[in-house]
Amino acid sequence: MKVKTILVSQPEPKIENSPYFDLQDRQKVKVDFRPFIHVEGLEAKEIRQQKIDLSKFSAIILTSRNSVDHFFRVAEEMRFKVPDSMKYFCQSEAVAYYLQKYVVYRKRKIYVGKRTFEELSPLIKKYKDETFLLPTTDKVKPIIPSTLDNLGVKWTQATFYKTVISDLSDLENVTYDILVFFSPSGIESLFHNFPDFKQNETRLAVFGNTTIKAVEAKGLRVDIAAPTPETPSMTMALKKYIDQVNKGK
Most buried pick, 35, 51, 69, 79, via CB within 10 A? Predict the structure, then answer.
């Protein structure tokens, strides 16, 4: 069956040159965006209940843009002036670049990993005398705490924000040729909103092994999987699939 409509379970990209927009134009398909999950920040009093005193930390580990936003939000709510001496350990260049929203980059001590948390760990180990705070969501990849424990550094995890299932009830009678998922939480949201969901002719495009496992655990079929050596991004995987089914290749 040909593909005409795609629903991506994430917010619409804010950049004009997103590969999704290019996919839409070149493949002549309709691409909609709808976050199946969203993030809500915890209040300062909820952070205090976790016995978190921001003044006790000399370094912050930032794994995502959300962690950046919510650390500085909580600091402001607590009327804590983040000292210029604070060290920032960012999981990727994208996170470090986003940090500029809150600090003057060249005047701060910022250490940047390549992409994964494991790639950031040698930098953290190099500064093992620091006291690290890890502001996170309520759902943390197990590799992060286990890596920090193995490094033998002084660190504290605190939940600054949580992942919440979005209300998708307005989509009840809407169908798409392809649904695109990036996390097990997205699959959880799908079944929370539509307990009787049947895949039928709907194709599922799934990113990452943990998401693939979550799809299969629900007895669903993975039609498009990424990343692969040939299609390292979701848009590349979608393009390859659409080329095959729409053009009969």
Answer: 69
Is 90 exceeded by the pLDDT of residue 23? yes
Domain presence at residue 210: no
Domain hosting residue 108, numbered range:
40-162
Is there a contact between 25 and 194 (Cβ–Cβ < 8 Å)? no
Q: Between the CA of residue 18 and those of 56, 101, 182, what are the distances in Å?
A: 41, 21, 17
Written as six digits, the tokens of 128 are 């093992």
Residue 116 — very low, low, confident or very high, per pLDDT cuts 50/70/90? confident
Pairing mode, strands 131-136 and 59-62: parallel
Specify the length of the chain in residues. 249
Last residue of a domain, one of 147, 162, 177: 162
Q: Which of 95, 38, 40 is nearest to 64 (CA)?
A: 95
Q: How many CB atoms lie within 10 A of CB 232?
A: 10
Encoded tokens for 193: 């909103």
> Has residue 226 been placed in a domain?
no
